[in-house]
Amino acid sequence: MSLASQEQVQHAFLNGVSYPIEQGESILTFSRRSNTEHVVPTLCDDSRLEPYGSCRVCCVDVALVAEGSRKVMASCHTPINHGMHIFTHSARIEKLRKNIIELVLSDLPPHTLPVQQSTSNTEFEQVVLATGVSEVRFTQGRQSVATVPLTFNQKGEASLCDESHPYMRMDLSLCIDCNRCVRACDEIQGEQVLSVAGRGFDTRIIKGQDVSFNDSDCVSCGACAQTCPTGAISDVFRQQLTKVQRSDQLSKDQYSKDQYLEEQRSTIQTPIEKIRTICSYCGVGCNLEVSVQNNKILSIEAPKEAAVNSGHTCLKGRYAWRFYDHKDRLDSPLVKIDGKLTKVSWDYAFEYVAKRLTSIKSKHGSDAIAGISSARCTNEENFLMQKMMRVVIGTNNIDCCARVCHSPTAYGMQKSFGTGAATNSIDDIKQTEFILLIGANPTAAHPVTGAKIKQKVMKGTPLIVIDPIKTELARFANWHIQLRPGTNVAVLNMMAYFIISEGLIDQTFINERTEEYQSYCQAIMALNIDNLANIAGVDKNLVKQAAVAYAKANNAMSFHGLGVTEHSQGSRAIMCIADLVLLTGNIGRQGVGMNPLRGQNNVQGAADMGCQPHQGAGYFSVEDTDSITYYQQHYQITKNSLVNLSQWPTTVGYKIPEMFNAALSGDLKALWILGEDVVQTDPNQHHVVASLANLDLLIVQEIFLSETAKMADVVLPGTTFLEKNGTFTNGERRVQKVNAAVKPRTGCKTDGDIIVEMMNALGFPQAPYDAESMLEEISQVVPFFSGITWKNLGENGLQWPVEKNGVDTKILHINTFKRGLGKFHFYEFEESREILENKSEFPFILTTSRNLEHYNAGTMTRRTSNESLVSEDVLLVNPQDASSKGIINKSKVRLYSARGEITLTAQISDKVKKGVLFTTFHFPELMINRVTGDVTDKHTKCPEYKVVAVAIEKT
Amino acid sequence: MSKNLSQLARRQGIDNTLFQQLVFSDSVNSGLVNVDIDNSADVVKQQRKVLAKKFLMGEAVVHGAASFYDFIDDGTNEHNANKKAYVCNGSSCLCANTQATVKEVLVAQFGSQNVGHVTCLGRCAENGAFQINGNNYSGSDITKVKQITDQSSTASNESFQVQTTLAEPILTAKITDVAKYYQLFDELSKQFVTKNELEHLLDKLVESGLRGRGGAGFPTGVKWRSCLEELGFNEQSEKYIVCNADEGDAGAFSDRYLLEHRPHAVLFGMLMAGLLTGAKTGVLYIRAEYPEAIKQTKQAISEFDQLILNKTILSDFRFKIIKGAGAYICGEETALLRSIEGQRPVVSVRPPFPTQSGLFGCPTVVNNVETFGSIHFIFSELNSEQNSGVSKYKALGNGKSTGSKLVSLDGAFVHPGIIEVAMGTRLTTIIELAGGFVKGIKALHIGGPLGGVVPLCEIEKLTIDFESFSDNGFLLGHASIIGIPQSMKMIDYIAHLFEFTALESCGKCYPCQIGSVRGQEMFEQAITGKQSINPELLSDLLETMQLGSLCALGGGVPLPINNILTYFENEVAPYFLSKKSTATGEQ
After folding, report:
1. CB contact under 8 A, B507 and A59
2. What sign for the dihedral angle of Cα A91, A92, A93, A94?
3. Cβ(A273)–Cβ(A292) under 8 Å?
4. CA B86, B92, B98: angle at the middle one, nearest 5?
């Protein structure tokens, strides 16, 4: 075929009109894309799912030539071909559709035949109306719902509707067997909790082995409820929304139009508004669509066209939002008066804080004050927080929770590549041919990304999991390297050794784009592999097989989490991963790269905005003269300004653990904490509490009276993400718009407003908080934000760096690294001090992580029905350890370390190896951080949460 | 279908399929005598939980797949599985009117709760078919149920005629020397090695005119070629040859005949398909209702393996038998593939076709037993100008339908059994050879439940080939012939066809899932006098099923029903609202 004819536009005819076709698309996609007037109705189709072809409502007439014989074909699974003639609404097709819908209605309750068009119609009802079915001619016959067994709700009452679960609902009397729920559970979430039982007419949807939702392994992602066209599978919030919509519709029908408008005016029937925003639960950055009426949230769904999550999200984003109007919300500033936190006015609070800070500053200097910003807050708020500390207070004592999670990632990747952020986009998972997952449990901690990885792996993409825990994805891994916690560097060096010794390095890439290879290679080849295998407790042949497979893959993508960073060798392990990436040239194109799974929703943004003691907004060094000048100019600080040049901070400030030490030693007098519960979440709780108690002034900006807030001198009630505007930056550098769904709770202010008013109270003229203008200010300071405006972010945001012309960046380091050449770093494995010092007395290693249902300190999730899904932190104990210690399943055990002890419930599980224990840290009742230690990463001071020497005994 | 489940099944391979574990763990359960019902259901649940974990699938997947089949028990006693005896309720036995007696005897022997039902044991030549302890019986066997039960005489007295009109039989030819039979493969595999050479062989196959004998009549050579092309000609690529031996069409037993009496012909065809497509594994999906076929095929495979061991032939091809579990729809090729994978055997959409993405998502050839059975003949004497199998094969028939066809004749014929005829043979010739009918016949149901109902007046017109049948508004299908006796009421026969479809519908597409039940109800209501049939509504229903169904089950059953409505209009008319009254809306 000549090039010219290849380029000829392929086309087909839709109801007689010619339209271009796209390679591989179905007739349905072609028709929908080409003409929006002749809509082909469907019931079983969901564009995110594989074509299924069960409802047959999408049938069309197909002819190969204009007047040729026509054949009825289902458009959803028949590919369009060049020259085809498609007739979407011929007489026999319309009749066929009508007859099929009539059959469907013959197996549904009579009331499901909709009377008229309405905005509250379900998808099914819309199709019924579109096809024009107005009666069912069959005499009442068998109803398939008759074979559905009853289930018991939480009160023990038997019902056809499954109401056993805190969120999920199922009413099979409305089910039309389209199987979209089953397919969503399989093809989107990858859980396969739903399937179908029986065959023929009596097929029905089941959960697990025909158990209730509550007894099933359902992870409550809600994908089934969102795709169900009839409401047969639903959830408590969606049901509530439907109820409101229906009553709204009813009132419209009952009254005359004038009366209705009158009512509208009197705001009794406020229309339901849909507001798009970004979830604040993790670094995935799912887009959410919030349904709001009268300043009340009714329900949350995931927009189908969202680039990040395409209509999917997890139970936290979709269902765990009721904390926003929980009765425990703080609703007034509190100041400690006579040792008791007492409600005060905002004016009083600002004045009080300003007075105390000014006095501390004049007595002890700016560096006696420190701030901890929040990765839960917007970029704009983080920018303001660091600006206040640096420009108004005059100190670099500003840090954020990245310190305790991904600071080693930022540090290590900067050292290796020049940029401390994910090199690729999550969407690249579609293109990759190999996945390396280290120290991360994304199906629990980053559920939507986890689901994408799982989908890919189930379909055959090879996966290496390096993790001490047998995580959900480890079950599916081709190689699960179940190492001893704390030995990442040993295993990663073993992999490098095998890649080099098997001659599988990408020599061209190494020659052209890297430096320091020779010395690195020498050091690696000198390693004693048997010794390392012994240290890590792994089979060296397994590591070899995995390394060889990884190196041989064309496009391998790596992901890592806190299982890499929260170690004494955290930063070094990051550079070891980067070494593997450089050895194999897996960087700078689609489907490869090194991708940290960022923990909190805006932890990337908090660091980007300069909430770090050593780098300001945009990552310029705080000690470098040029960058100091840059910042001074951009913040418009002059000799004569209110805050003058002479008090500009020029030295690196305290990292969070250093803040605690300084507080204990008396060097730090005041600490302002924005939205973080350090008492519950930072390691070695006794130490943290003692430090905070030693401060002169502790200011906590929070939504609930957290364990930290309880110790504060001043508590300032902030707001949730549902009440504020701004931007979050997700783990793939995507800056997305956060839009307020409801007004701030009475008595509360947005965190941005609080900081701005505080700056003003301290004498700095900062303009009132407004997301758009703040973003403009940021784009002038942070170079990689230069092309970002509130407007051009659009619905799906932009991935930084964004050029002035608005072009964003999906993949970093394409032709050159940010630092020029990629740099190899060799680090030898070093045993943690925690183990060396405590091993003999505390022979077990405890490692901690999150579960799916709860988020960090549980501040939010524990104030939702997620609490009833998982209501305690349990300790996983290997069966062998359990039997040698006489521990039985679900019994209480005492867990103790050199720092402290707790008592918790044991669960015997083969997810942990002998000698390793695992638990989560969501429940303040437990306070797992009483036992965690104070060893930190050498380079970044990130705490070693993942390795704690402990002992256990049955109680 | 689920790509995820196909690929998860692929990880475990053909020797460790979830489906076979369900089928065989079920027979393990049946050994659990004296276990109370609740407890045995719990045992099943626990087993399925373990299986789900092992296969990395959801428990719902395992439960959902198991619940599809007639013969996989869920541990409760309500299921049709693990009965002591089964009564055949296929169309042929129904027409022979033998089953009331059979059921009576079995119920008396075992009690009604211990007698299940099965749709067609392939004993249509003798009728009176039933199963005890996994062995099939028919004809006069019912008189010795006691001896069968106490194991003193368990052999069936089955006998049927096998005849042919061909001077040189193809499918019914005896295979006397197995080693010699496979020499042909040895010669061909040494002679044809490169892709070009294999394509030459495929050209020969196309030239023979062989078309799939499962009913659809797709050119076999074309199918094999597309499988060869898929993934390129690569030694490493994973491909499968699947023999569809799920002969579920009531009235048909020619596949059973081949597997029981000519298994090497089938294995040879699969072996050649492997050579010509690059596949290394042959899977025979044999229905559970054919225990003897499974036994004989197993025996033949071990003989083949012995030839490999003895180095009589050189091949790394291997066979695997998958035993079905009672579901008619598994005869549909995509449902069959899903069944092997342990998914619910519901029909998949096409494309992709099995040759592109079949078993475990790999390129797969699926052919009927009889199709494979013709391969040895076609490839014999390949280099002979005049006497080659190809030229002899294509010389038979009408040019479009070539070669020979096995025809199954049921108990309505004087000499029931299997007859091999050249394509194009007159139907009347076959009836004559079979000695005519034993009783008054008013129509022939040819080609299984989805084949046409041919009234006696149309018999003259028909010859055994795809074209003659479709041109006259019928279907050759599998060429099984059931005689519908004068005594059979056609209204009952339609109700029977709807009932069969409703029982066997996979439940995926609405026209078949709901339409078959509504159709069954319309006829039942008419028969019991509750409600006459609205002809317009019935016509809409049949059109909806025919045009709208996903596969040939829902799409095919309107054909025999329409045949009956056309040719036996007077007989069924009393059950219908008169045209006039429907027009005015009266009842």
Report:
1. no
2. positive
3. yes
4. 60
Query: How many angstroms separate the CA atoms of B412 and B431, rounded?
Result: 11
Beta bridge partners of A557: A435, A593
Residue A632: exposure state from Cβ atoms within 10 A (0-12, 13-18, ≥19): middle
pLDDT in tens, A754-811: 999 999 999 999 999 999 999 999 999 999 999 999 999 999 999 999 999 999 999 9
Q: Using CB atoms within 10 A of its CB, is residue B490 exposed (0-12), middle (13-18) or buried (19+)?
A: buried
> Which of B60, B513, B541 shows the shortest C-beta gap to A201?
B513
Q: Residue A557 region, left (φ>0) first, then alpha (ψ -120 to 50), else beta?
A: beta
A59-63 and A70-74 strand pairing? antiparallel
**Choosing among B518, B528, B530, B533, which should be mutated to test the A contact, i.e. which has the most A CBs within 10 A?**
B518
The rounded distance, in Å, linking the Cα atoms of A518 and A524 is 10
| Alpha helices for B209-282 (secondary structure H) | 220-229, 254-261, 263-277
Residue numbers in B near A137 (CB within 8 A): 534, 537
Task: Say if A70 is an interface residue toward chain B (CB within 8 Å).
Answer: no
C-beta of residue A857 within 8 angstroms of C-beta of residue A924: yes
| Residues whose CB falls within 8 Å of the CB of residue A858, separated by 6 or more in sequence, listed in order | A922, A923, A924
* Nearest beta carbon to residue B548 from set A51, A56, A200: A56
Q: In which band, very low, low, confident or very high, does the pLDDT at B26 lie, cut at 50, 70 and 90?
A: low
A461-482 in b/e form (b: 16+ CB < 10 A) is bbbbbbbbbbbbbbebbbbbbb
How far is it, in rounded angstroms, from Cα A806 to Cα A793? Answer: 9
Burial of A729 (0-12, 13-18, 19+ CB in 10 A): buried
Task: Tell me how far CA of residue A490 lies from CA of A30, A504, A557, in angstroms.
Answer: 53, 20, 21
pLDDT band of residue A11 (cuts 50, 70, 90) is very high
Whole-complex ipTM = 0.95
**Chain A (75-114) residues lying within 8 Å, Cβ to Cβ, of chain B:** 76-77, 79, 92, 95-96, 99-100, 103-104, 106-107
The token duo for A673 is 């904490």
Chain B residues whose CB is inside 8 A of the A199 CB are 67-68, 327, 329, 344, 504-507
Asked if A139 is an interface residue toward chain B (Cβ–Cβ < 8 A), one would say yes
DSSP per-residue letters across B386-403: TT-HHHHHHHSBSSSSBS
Is A624 in the B-facing interface, judged by CB distances under 8 Å?
no
Tell me which H or E stretch contains A680: helix A678-681
Q: Give the amino acid at A91.
A: A
Q: Do B60 and A206 touch (CB under 8 A)?
A: yes
CA distances from B485 to A746, B92, B459, B496 (A): 85, 10, 15, 15
| Nearest residue in B to A205, CA atom | B64
In the block, tokens 């758009």 appear at A772
User: How do residues A187-236 score in pLDDT, each as one tens digit?
Assistant: 999 999 999 999 999 999 999 999 999 999 999 999 999 999 999 999 99
Contacts of A882 (CB under 8 A, 6+ apart): A888, A889, A906, A908
Cβ-based contacts of A54 with chain B (< 8 Å): 508-510, 550
Which DSSP symbol is given to A744? P
Cβ neighbours of B516 in A, within 8 Å: 200-201
Contact criterion met (CB < 8 Å) for A99 and B58 = no
Question: Is-contact A73 A53, C-beta < 8 A?
Answer: no
A651-682 tens-digit pLDDT: 999 999 999 999 999 999 999 999 999 998 88
Q: Which residues pair with B420 in a beta bridge?
A: B164, B406
Query: How far is it, in rounded angstroms, from Cα B450 to Cα B557?
Result: 5
